[in-house]
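Why show two proteins at once? Because comparison is the fastest way to build intuition. When a single record is shown, students tend to memorize it. When two are placed side by side, the eye starts asking what differs. So, the first record is below.
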Amino acid sequence: MSDEFDLEGLRDMAEAGDVRALRWLPTLLDRLKAAEARAEALERSLTEVAQRHGGSTGVAKAALGLPHGNGKLTPAEMEAIRNDGRSLRAIAAAYGVHFSTISKIKGGKHSSDQRRRS
């Protein structure tokens, strides 16, 4: 096994009782700690932005470029939709949303469209 590993293979090794899987435990713990630190930093940023915008986490998430809790599309996906030349229904089917949502995004009238917030 190289320095990189896949979690499925590691899980299979552990389930088979292969003690070599244990050597990856420190690496997994380090990655978990790093991910937790990033999540805490993001939460702090979100709280700070929310406080500046009257306590609204939805506005704070938008200000940080994050999708809100009920949203299905990320800002990057919305940009890709704007540049997609396929039909509205084809794009909607690819992203699992209604075609009217695609129409609003392409027309710059979607509620989370960054161009409307300036």
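Second record. Ask yourself what differs from the first in the token line.
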Amino acid sequence: MLARGGGAARALPDNRPYGAGRRGGEPAAAAALALVAEGSTDAFADVAGDRHRIFDLAPAMILVPAAGGAVIDALGRPIEIDKDLTRRWSGVVAASPALAEELAAVIRGS
């Protein structure tokens, strides 16, 4: 995740998304994603394997686009609500549409 500092985005020291830990230290993705919608951070990007559930992402899927941003996966596809509550996502990016695409491209290695 990128955090604002000195007018420019910077990576947090441990390269983990910002947020309170839960379930053994896993970051609170919903809180970190809400910071993007609020404008407190420029972007959220988490490439950790299959750890985000719909209840982590659903608030961001409403708040971030309402604020003019995008929530996509690492392939540039919008995250869509799935009724399967056991499904997990990885490669989640939230930011302005242009920055989200740029970060997804970096994650893909293109």
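One difference worth noting in the second protein: The chain has three helices and seven strands.
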